[in-house]
Amino acid sequence: MRISELSRLSGVSVASIKYYIREGVLAAGESDGPNRATYGGDHLARLRLIRGLVDSAGVSIAGVKRIAGALDAGIPVNEAFGVAQSAVPLVGATDGTEPSAHATDAIRDVIHPHAVGHPAAASAARALDTFEAAGEPISAAWLERYAEAAAIVARADFDELERRPDPAAQARIVAVGTALGDVVFQSLRRIAQATEGERRFPSPPPASPPAV
Amino acid sequence: MRISELSRLSGVSVASIKYYIREGVLAAGESDGPNRATYGGDHLARLRLIRGLVDSAGVSIAGVKRIAGALDAGIPVNEAFGVAQSAVPLVGATDGTEPSAHATDAIRDVIHPHAVGHPAAASAARALDTFEAAGEPISAAWLERYAEAAAIVARADFDELERRPDPAAQARIVAVGTALGDVVFQSLRRIAQATEGERRFPSPPPASPPAV
DNA sequence: AGCTATCGGATAGTCCGACTGTCTATGAGA
DNA sequence: TCTCATAGACAGTCGGACTATCCGATAGCT
After folding, report:
1. A90-142 pLDDT, tens per residue?
2. A150 within domain boundaries
3. Å from B17 (CA) to C8 (C1')?
4. Is residue B33 one of the residues assigned to a domain?
């Protein structure tokens, strides 16, 4: 197919497709001459993946490039984790400020010892500091429940991974699942909050759902 | 204190402080004359909150303004949820594309019936569609575990809320906890993945932690 | 009283990411 | 032959978050 048809089928403007090709996120069409190139189903699929990661998970174009590059290169699973986490920088991975000692301790209390130096531990600790900056420090019990939930999610992630026999498929699910899993969980958390709120404080009239 | 001292204590440049005042995120100092104003501890605390929400949780200045405004106005708890969710738009709340029917069904299967129309349900469904665009649809079991984890987190959130007797404190924790809870969970998920990975696939040499 | 460093306030400029628009040469199809 | 879509290059736009410059005034020192 030609670029205009690819644009029509994907809902992405021709200009944006060209931009993605320029940025190396999408392969160029197979050239049939100086001003003619052919695109196939692979291009359409990749385009849907790009739009999905960008729109649905908020991944940057540079991040999509890393993820897509990993898929193309067929990297091993253990590297896929690194790619996924570099492509989707943890919100607030600005390591400018050091977290407070007691926030760091609070995090250490709920994670496995070998993960104490993990960059995400500092992110979590800084978030705890921000709770305090707002005048509302959270309890250890709250944090423990979060860690428990995170463990459930991580086990589900690995079970899903082991469900796939093919190493390439495993790498794919890791590369893509890190970003998308965050979104799925955030969404389900919003929904669960609404459900739990309704359970604890029933509203007589039909509740108006908050605008997200 | 004067603006330069506020800048020094907070680590935020004078120019940025002025910008925050212009944007209405931070109150202006108390004017002592045409070119003299005094700032107090409240300003410093607010500045720390702003930097925390921006750096740690990736909230936009406009979002911080809504959250901070809610704190100042002393809004009721049920409204605080709406404020928090509008201030921290769910990644991928671009309602341009409709999720597929079977993704919508998959989400419906794991949430409470009254939440089916919730905007976050569409976000979650779109994320499932993106898994498929990557060629790796996820299993119902995976989604169920996520929903279970989300329920645990939501209960922890409400327990933490009910721990506070003061309605103003409840509103504060809601306004701030939505954004920060996402970050804490994401961080703990990364850590739990590393831990679970180590448990299932032990690495003989000390594992190199992935760069976040 | 004179001087100067700093302050508050306003306005304009910068930087970055993600596009979007314009232009040119070319060649396929009517 | 003529028109029109295309590939490819490059400049322009837009929004968000600052950052730099300028100006008038005055606190505080001499």
Report:
1. 776 666 688 999 999 999 999 999 999 999 999 999 999 999 999 999 999 99
2. yes
3. 12
4. yes
